[in-house]
Amino acid sequence: MKEGEEQLVLFKNKEIRQVFHENEWHFSIVDVIEAITETDRPSKYWTNLKSKLFKKEELYELSNKIIKLEMKASDGKYYSTEVVNVETLFRIVQSIPSKKAEPFKKWLAKVGYERIQEIQNPEIGVKRAILQWQIEGRTEDWIDARIRSIVTRKELTNEWKNRGVQDKEYGYLTNIISCETFGIDVSTHKKVKGLKNHRLRDHMTDLELIFTMLGEKSTTAIAVSSDAQGLNENAEAAKAGGKIAGGAARTLEKKLGKRIVSSDNFLSGGNRINDPKQLALIPDKE
To answer: What sequence ranges are listed for the domain Bro-N (predicted)?
Structure first.
């Protein structure tokens, strides 16, 4: 499966849209509600249910797990749609008073079985990812760097979590590291590569992955050494860690005579030649 790929699945002859995002399926919430409640106003039903759920302190965390992705509607157009993964959808369905809720949970358990397997044994997910990358023709060096980048990222986010940083703030800190390392934020980096609903790191070159790891590994070490607590202190650590990677990147760029950031990607299974117009998005940085 590729990032952004959509499928229709049936529950009791009701179509439910699902989209593949960050290596797992995400389901349209309004589609699920329509299938379970048979309401003719699923959007209104979801708005009311969401309001009730978020008033409960123990369910407030759901707000950070609901994301919006572009999905194709019945009119053939694409709209921003609220979606959740299997685990979060289970929690939402438990709050819906319907006779179909229980059968749906059993159906969902079957649909999400592979994902649950991966949670219980992460090695399954890694092996699946490696197989997919091999099929796409990625080199062994790239695959090795990508796997190590996953480990490095996990170590960093674990530190952030333990140091009082909220999940929704990870992106802000990541952008700090990216700006200091490459001179651009994550969004611009994706534009340079011509990416939309794709994971940036799955389209990085070996060098981009290596310097990303250096920035994140340095940030982790600095956060631990300085005992950074909260967003502001961890932002300082991210800036310092990114500067270390950025300094190394600038040194190599001078030797190579070109940027580390590249417009190369793996769309359609191949690398694209650098596009000068897109590379112009990167500001000069000494």
So the answer is: 15-114
pTM, two decimal places: 0.59
What's the longest Cα–Cα distance across the chain?
Answer: 67
- Supply 188's token pair: 């611009």
Encode pLDDT of 38-80 as tens digits: 899 999 999 999 888 777 655 567 778 899 999 988 888 889 9
CA atoms within 13 A on the CB side of 35: 24
194 and 274 Cβ atoms separated by less than 8 Å: no
pLDDT digits (tens, 9 = 90+) for 166-193: 988 999 999 999 999 999 999 999 999 9
Domain ranges of the chain: 6-119, 121-279
| Euclidean distance between CA atoms 24 and 18, whole angstroms | 10
Q: Which amino acid type is present at position 90?
A: F
H helix count then E strand count, the chain: 12, 5
- Pairwise CA distance, residues 220 & 204, whole Å: 21
Q: What is the CA radius of gyration of the chain?
A: 21
Query: What residue type is assigned to position 106 of the chain?
Result: K
Reduced to 3 states, what is the DSSP secondary structure of residue 85? strand
How far apart are the C-alpha atoms of 257 and 250, rounded to whole Å?
10
**Residue 193 to residue 263: CA distance in whole angstroms:** 4
What's at 190, amino acid-wise?
Answer: K
Q: Is 278 exposed, middle or buried (0-12, 13-18, 19+ CB in 10 A)?
A: middle
* DSSP letter, residue 274: P
